[in-house]
Each structure stands twice: as structure tokens, then as C-alpha cells.
Amino acid sequence: MAFFVLTIALLMGLVGVVIDSAISYHGNEDAQFVASSAARAGTSAIGADAVSLGTSTMDSARAEQVALDYLRAAGYEGTATAQGGEITVRVWSNVQTRFISLFGVETLPVEGEANATLLTQ
Questions:
Q1: Model's pTM, two decimal places?
Q2: Which of the chain's termini has less CB crowding within 10 Å, N or C?
Q3: Model pLDDT for residues 43-88, shown as the tens digit of each residue
């Protein structure tokens, strides 16, 4: 009987770790998607200005601000660095655990990073 109880507890713990690992994996995917979208948003805003103003340079400050606004709207913290027609966005957040919180691990970190380049012709 003790072996059965121990085996069930071990299996439940294993299932919990698998579920929380999946939550972390999907959180990282979401963070990566948000970083990519924010980088594209930064270059898209500048791309529109480049066409209307007839310039092929990127306003780095505006690109960074557009990307950071996107991050805030998506509920993420992060940084945006634009330079020489390219913008790099890094995001981070935490996801709540379901099972391993029983062992004191309440959250797991998630992060993503993406680059986008303004293309002009």
C-alpha cells in the first residue's frame, strides 16, 4: 500500500512538472511573438514616414517608442533599441505555475527577442 501511494504521488508530481513546463514553453512562445510584433510595429511606423517624407532613414526614437507602446499594450515589459535601420526588441514576463507552486515556485520567467529591419527601395 505504501508503494502504491508513493508511486501515485510521484506520478502526480511528474504530471505537474510536465504541465508547468508546457505553460512556460507557451509563455516563451507568446513572448517571442510579442517581441516580433513590436519590432515590426516599430519599423512599420517608420516605413510609412519614410514613404511620405521621401526619406530612407529611420527615426530611431520614434521606432523605439512605437515598439514600447506595443509592448505595454500587450502587457509585457521590455526594451527597444533602434539603430541604423534596425530595431531590436527584448521582452520579459512571468507565468503563474499550477503544480510546482506547491514546492514554492510561484512563477517561471518567460522572455523573447526579435529584430526587424526597415527595408527601403
A1: 0.81
A2: C
A3: 887 665 566 666 667 788 889 999 999 999 999 999 999 988 899 9
